[in-house]
Amino acid sequence: MITLYDFELSGNCYKLRLLMSILRLRYDIIPVDFFPGRQHKSDWFLKLNPFGQLPVLKDDDLVLSDSGAILAYLAKKYDETGQWFPNDPAITAEILRWHAIADDITSTASAARLALGFDYDFDVPKAQAGAHRIFRLMDEHLWFGEREGRDWLCTPPHPTTADIACFPYVMLSEEGGIGRQDYPALRRWSDRVRRIPGFTIMSGIFPAGRALEQA
Amino acid sequence: MCHPTSPFPFRLSRSNLTTMTTPDTLTLNSWQVIAATDEIPVGSITRTTLLDTPLALTRDRDGVPVVWRCTDEEPGDEIDPETILDRLPVTTGYGFVWTSLGTPPKELFSITEYAEPDRVNMSCGSIGIHVSAPRAVENFLDMGHFPYVHTDILGAEPHTEVKEYDVEVSEERDEVLATRCRFFQPRAALSATDGMEVEYVYRVPHPYCSVLYKSSPEAPERRDVIAIFLQPVSEDRCRAHLLQSMIDSTSTITELRRFQQTIFGQDKPILENQYPKRLPLDPRSETPIRADKSAIAYRRWLSQKGVTYGVIPAAG
Ligand SMILES: [Fe+2]
Fold first, then answer.
1. Element (H, E) at A48
2. A33, A169, A200: best mutation site toward chain B, by most B Cβ within 10 Å?
3. What dihedral do alpha carbons B33, B35, B40, B44 form, nearest 10°?
4. Using 50, 70 and 90 to split pLDDT, how confident is the model at B289?
5. Do A203 and B261 touch (CB under 8 A)?
6. pTM value?
7. How does pLDDT run across B162-175, given as a tens digit for each residue?
8. Burial of B314 (0-12, 13-18, 19+ CB in 10 A)
């Protein structure tokens, strides 16, 4: 029995909803009022995760936190194809590297979004510049990948949890005032992610092929 | 750092000046929303911006909000509200704090349902959006986007038609009123179990505020109230303060907030992609879609009232 402690507008929570939708896993949601209620700093939540961060996932008696760690757990435990988090040591390292970059996207693109939308006291120009630097590198990596016939962030010919981990805060970047018009390969990759069978949306992210995205 | 207004002619570039106009008299003298009352710390400072003006706010020991023009205060600074002598006018209403940079009227517009004892009243958060306040009001009035933006919640294909409805400007109450708005909704509220045709009434009782009444799935003879109060931060930015006043005896506040935030989170990118960010009032400047009767009335009302902040006024 899987339970997700979840905030709808959180990209980190959405990473888990997205992978569980792709893997067709059933789970319950316990909504956490991150904003404006700040329940992730409340006593009951700190007992689940002393670091006071969403998401938290419970699988029977096991309590897990950190979106990247939970993505790895769900893939290793429930993905029968073994594709989303392959066992190969070199590929594992490659995926974990992108999970770390996903955290850098959170601390830049997501920080800018929290500052502009949710009144957080972060340095917006610095966060925006940091996100552009990462997007530029991702765009280059993906552009060369396309020329070599690689569609995804990592080497395998299919998506992995690396793609799931990096996707949400790339897609929500405009809410932080970070445009993606200069990153065509990044935009093509995000379209491919949205066409993965079992893909699901979150508030602020529309399905592939909408007018808004083509604009 | 909080930027005091004094050095601004030297500090701002020309391009900044073009987006920073003096607010019109009506806007200056109106009540403007700035925060959810509960979220203002007691005894320490938080800050916000209203009409390009940095404000500092706190609450005293009795919980009463105190608002003043910010100078060098930092958020989190401790403050004894007694020491603040040069205060802006303050009123509270519907769970929010309202202030004014001019001389506001005695009372705020009324939402009588809010006081009904069995209602669940809550703020669903104050969310910054990169668009003008009037653009956000206009989007709130538009039913045409429901099936495409709030798919499977507030609308679904093939039920895309906006049926005929009535719009008037109430002379007596000085507000825009749209009635008999009907729309098929797969999940009209958290308390809804089935799709239903929902009847809406929209009011615009303030240039930057709109109140929506919709039949309550739990008590069909009564109406849920959802309001959006926009804080005009600058001409092209605002904060949306979301109010729900619901008939719902089963859901938690967290669940009700989540429902409304899900909807608003879908509107946000649509709003932020609107161009220009200010609302054009010239009837010829944008071709309004057929459903936009209420938008046309709203734009005309703003023109007649002389609102210029956050809009592109009609020529001549
Ligand atoms: Fe909407």
1. helix A43-48
2. A33
3. -70
4. low
5. yes
6. 0.93
7. 888 999 998 888 99
8. middle
- What is the side-by-side order of every strand in the sheet holding A56-59? A27-31, A2-6, A56-59, A62-65
ipTM attached to this prediction: 0.94
Q: What's the A211 CA to ligand 1 centre distance in angstroms?
A: 16
Tell me how far the alpha carbon of residue B267 lies from the centroid of ligand 1, in angstroms.
5
Between the CA of B260 and the centroid of ligand 1 the distance, in Å, is 10
- CA-to-CA distance for A167 and A60, rounded, in angstroms? 28
**Which domains occur in chain A, in start order?**
2-78 (3.40.30.10), 89-194 (1.20.1050.10)
Contact B265 A203 (CB under 8 A): yes
Domains along the sequence of chain B with CATH? 20-99 (2.102.10.10), 112-312 (3.90.380.10)
pLDDT single digits (tens) A156-207:
999 999 999 999 999 999 999 999 999 999 999 999 999 999 999 999 999 9
Query: What is residue A136's predicted lDDT score, i.e. its pLDDT?
Result: 98
d(CA A190, CA A210): 13
